[in-house]
Design goal:
8 helices, about 70% helix, Growth Hormone, Chain: A, single chain, globular
């Protein structure tokens, strides 16, 4: 599938691999902030928003005329969408299943389905690419997202959101450092896409400049990334058609 994308977009396999790396970076960097936002704006709302953002990214990827648009759709939007939708899944499972046995069973099912998806995703993507096109694989992703959104309409949030809950700026500083460090590393390793690495380095530097002057607002002593008295969000690997 990667070779098909590189040929169609008139780029290199290395360029497509960079897009995949950026997706993983965006998803990993925003996972904990995404979990914190569920407390502030609601778990169902963030779950639906993540699905919509991911679906839009898949559609943009399907019609991308070049590597830059593919990075916007797949790496950025799908990465952000994944970071928003994964934490609510585990938080809602924690809230819905109160006893230890049913909760363990629910987490087992979620983990099993995630493993099946991670294993079957590349196979399904490869079959669709071989039979139709790699663009159809992204359209298939968007269709699956649309079905999940429809099925999630009757989903209820057991806890109301708390808009007054502070957002830990210390994690935002860590995010800025992570973006800058990984961008710099990619800059030295991927010289064939110099313009892209320069953009990432500038973006990371801007994030650092914006968040470093901001002091961390803390409640009692220190604001944790995950409060001990609230459901903890867990991190699972995303399902990718690549």
């Amino acid at each position: 599938m990667i070779s098909d994308i590189s040929e169609d977009l008139d780029t290199t396999v290395q360029g497509v691999q960079i897009a995949i790396t950026i997706f993983l970076l965006v998803m990993a960097a925003l996972m904990i902030p995404g979990g914190k936002l569920t407390d502030k704006y609601g778990r169902k709302r963030l779950f639906i928003l993540g699905l919509i953002v991911y679906g839009i990214g898949a559609l943009i990827s399907a019609v991308s005329p070049g590597l830059g648009v593919l990075i916007l759709g797949n790496s950025i939007l799908e990465g952000v969408g994944t970071a928003l939708l994964i934490p609510p899944v585990y938080i809602l499972a924690t809230l819905y299943f109160t006893d230890v046995t049913s909760r363990a069973r629910a987490f087992g099912v979620i983990s099993a389905l995630g493993g099946i998806g991670a294993a079957a995703g590349p196979l399904i993507g490869g079959l669709i690419t071989s039979a139709i096109s790699w663009r159809a694989a992204f359209i298939f992703q968007a269709l699956i997202i649309a079905v999940i959104v429809l099925l999630s309409r009757k989903l209820t949030d057991p806890l109301p959101p708390d808009p007054t809950r502070p957002f830990d700026t210390g994690r935002r500083r860590a995010l800025g450092r992570l973006v800058w460090c990984w961008s710099s590393r990619a800059f030295w390793q991927q010289t064939t896409t110099l313009w892209l690495m320069l953009i990432l380095i500038v973006a990371g530097a801007l994030v650092l400049a914006l968040v470093l002057p901001v002091g961390t607002r803390e409640g009692e002593g220190r604001q944790r990334a995950i409060a001990v008295d609230e459901p903890a969000s867990a991190i699972a690997p995303p399902i990718s058609a690549w």
